[in-house]
Specification:
The complex is a heterodimer. Chain A is of the alpha/beta class. Helices cover 46% and strands 12% of the residues of chain A. Chain A has 15 helices and ten strands. Chain A has helices at residues 13-22, 38-42, 46-50, 75-78, 84-106, 125-143, 158-162, 164-175, 198-213, 227-230, 280-289, 300-305, 317-335, 339-362, 374-390, and strands at 4-8, 28-31, 53-54, 111-113, 150-157, 181-187, 217-220, 237-241, 268-271, 276-279. In chain A, the strands form two sheets. Chain A has an eight-stranded parallel beta sheet with strand order 3-2-1-8-7-6-5-4. A two-stranded antiparallel ribbon of chain A has the order 9-10. In chain A, strand 7 (217-220), helix 10 (227-230) and strand 8 form a beta-alpha-beta unit. Chain B is α/β, with parallel strands linked by helices. Chain B has a single domain (6-149), classed as Trna Endonuclease, Chain: A, domain 1. Chain B has six helices and six strands, in the order ααβββαβααββα. The radius of gyration of chain B is 15 Å and the shape is globular. The mean pLDDT of chain B is 92. Classes of the chains: A alpha/beta, B alpha/beta. Chains A and B meet through helix 11 of A and helix 3, helix 5 and helix 6 of B.
């Protein structure tokens, strides 16, 4: 089965929809009720919905942040104030009924069972997930005529993923549950722009492999460029996103926090030849070194961004629409291959990026740790370790 | 003997003739940790032309006890808006940076080390270069405009 690319929707969800419709970029959407009011979702093109999925985003069930309150099945809305025990006893069934009915009515590609967000490694993780949502959703799914694959959402943090026993319990639980697949979301603790934790990356490849070997569909959400590496484990769907909080899961987005004046990040341009988002002041320098532009990816958005009058700002859609096109092309190239061939292509891409960085270094360019190629050595090492396990090298 | 803190290194550096000369006199100024640019230099010195205060030359400094690699990357960012950019490192820990002097030369980043007695050692002197990012240069000009008019 080919590798699909879904847009992880967020604050500027129209950019993703434009990209899917106008640029034919990606295969579907992960709809985000945190940002999209119900009436907007209800009016979406059925053809798009058929290729997409809906994430109920029950991470913090007592906090109907943003547009979540427009959904009558959001736990805090259903229960008129969420409290764990009261909800499980009196409202969980109603919530599951409405949520499944809603997803079913949209005619989506998958139906999603939501789960809660937990920090740390609570010993009651499985019980709490089962009692609050999962069991009730499965009962409701059995009652409804759900003819689409059912995905169980799993929000896991680094501590959970790196704890072999903890992870083994979770894998035993999900593979013994009546579902067709997993919608995996990973919460990282590092603030680096790219994932540079080899233990985490290798564990994610192993988890994906274990799920696939059990016949489950695997959708991995909130991904940055590490999607290229994770494609080696043959997930069914990987995601692309606009702002950083759609490329790395951040629970703060779902919390009620006091508004403080924020300084937006410097804009960045994704460059496939570097497999990296490069901060824009470096771009001018690179344009001087490569006046023919051969180091940059060619899209209609690049042409707009390279106009003299373009005002570089992180809120400009061109940055992200360019990224969607470029990384989707990379993912599709990988997705056309399987197993060892996919690994070989990934290795070639990574080695070429390292070589590009070496060329730039030889020309006196020094990038900081969020624009440099330090992640590439880690990714290549992880890919090699995984390939050895898989018998590809 | 090494410095106990970056602040101590910074304080001693500013008392040296090298830095005093950069900021003393007419049409010269300094800003400590200017914000809103590409990175935050520990010190930015400004030298305006005597006959045209709008024509300025700026030098940025990144002061570190020992992490020369990080300092070099930060100093390189400052070239986005400055004509000159330097790394200033504790002389006690300067050897790893000196061993990599070619990286500073290639990037045209100055390298100074300073001991606790305030002696400065020049390892790389950069040549003047146009800042590489127009918008950050403009932001710097906006920042220093009140200084040049005072």
């Amino acid at each position: 089965m080919k590798l699909k690319v879904f847009h992880q929707l967020g604050f500027r969800y129209n950019w993703n929809i434009d990209s899917l419709v106008d640029d034919d970029c990606g295969d579907g959407l992960i709809i985000a009720p945190r940002y999209m009011p119900r009436d907007i979702v209800d009016k979406m093109d059925p053809a798009i919905l058929q290729a997409s999925m809906f994430d109920p985003q029950f991470f913090l069930p007592a906090t109907p942040k943003g547009k979540l309150e427009t959904y009558d099945f959001f736990p805090d809305v259903t229960a008129n104030g969420f409290e764990t025990v009261d909800f499980a006893d009196n409202h969980a069934s109603d919530c599951a009924h409405k949520c499944i009915e809603y997803q079913n009515g949209l005619g989506l590609a998958y139906v999603t069972i939501p789960t809660r967000y937990f920090p740390g490694t609570p010993s009651s993780f499985i019980d709490q997930q089962s009692n609050t949502f999962v069991n009730n959703f499965i009962t409701e799914i059995e009652k409804h005529v759900v003819d689409k694959p059912v995905l169980l959402q799993l929000v896991l943090n680094e501590l959970m993923i790196k704890d072999e026993d903890y992870m083994s319990d979770i894998l035993n639980w999900v593979t013994g549950t009546k579902i067709d697949g997993i919608y995996l979301i990973v919460e990282r603790s590092s603030i680096s722009k790219q994932v540079k934790d080899s233990e985490l990356l290798l564990a994610l490849l192993d988890i994906t492999t274990a799920l696939k070997e059990n016949g489950l569909i695997v959708v991995i959400g909130y991904l940055n460029a590490e999607s290229l590496l994770l494609s080696l484990a043959n997930p069914d769907v990987v995601t692309i996103g606009a702002y950083e909080n759609m490329r790395s899961f951040d629970i703060k987005v779902f919390q009620e926090v006091e508004k403080t004046p924020m300084h937006g990040p410097n804009p960045r341009l994704y460059m496939s030849q570097l497999m990296q988002w490069v901060e824009y002041p470096y771009i001018g320098l690179l344009r001087k070194l490569y006046p023919a532009g051969e180091i940059f990816d060619s899209t209609k958005y690049r042409a707009e961004m390279f106009e003299k009058t373009f005002n570089w700002h992180f809120g400009k859609p061109q940055l992200y629409k360019h990224h969607f096109v470029v990384i989707t092309d990379q993912l599709k190239s990988l997705g056309e291959l399987t197993g060892k061939d996919r690994f070989n292509l990934f290795s070639d891409m990574t080695m070429s990026a390292i070589e590009r960085y070496n060329q730039l270094s030889a020309q006196g360019i020094v990038f900081d740790s969020n624009s440099d190629g330090s992640h590439l050595y880690i990714w290549l090492t992880v890919a090699n370790l995984y390939a050895t396990k898989m018998g590809w090298r | 003997m090494p410095y106990e803190s970056e602040q101590a290194l910074f304080d001693v550096a500013l008392q040296t003739p090298f830095f005093k000369k950069l900021v003393a006199g007419e049409n010269r100024a300094q800003i400590v940790e200017p914000k809103g640019l590409f990175g935050i230099p520990d010190l930015l010195t400004i030298h305006a032309k005597r006959n045209n205060v709008n024509k300025i030359t700026t030098t940025s400094f990144e002061m570190k006890l020992k992490n020369w690699k990080r300092a070099l990357a930060q100093a390189f960012k400052y070239k986005a808006f400055s004509e000159f950019s330097y790394v200033v490192i504790d002389h006690h820990y300067a050897m790893p940076a000196i061993k990599n002097i070619s990286k500073f030369q290639l990037a045209n980043i100055g390298l100074l080390s300073i001991d606790t007695k305030g002696r400065i050692y020049r390892h790389v002197t950069p040549v003047k270069e146009e800042p590489y990012c127009e918008s950050f240069r403009q932001q710097l000009l906006n920042l220093v405009q009140p200084l040049s008019q005072s």
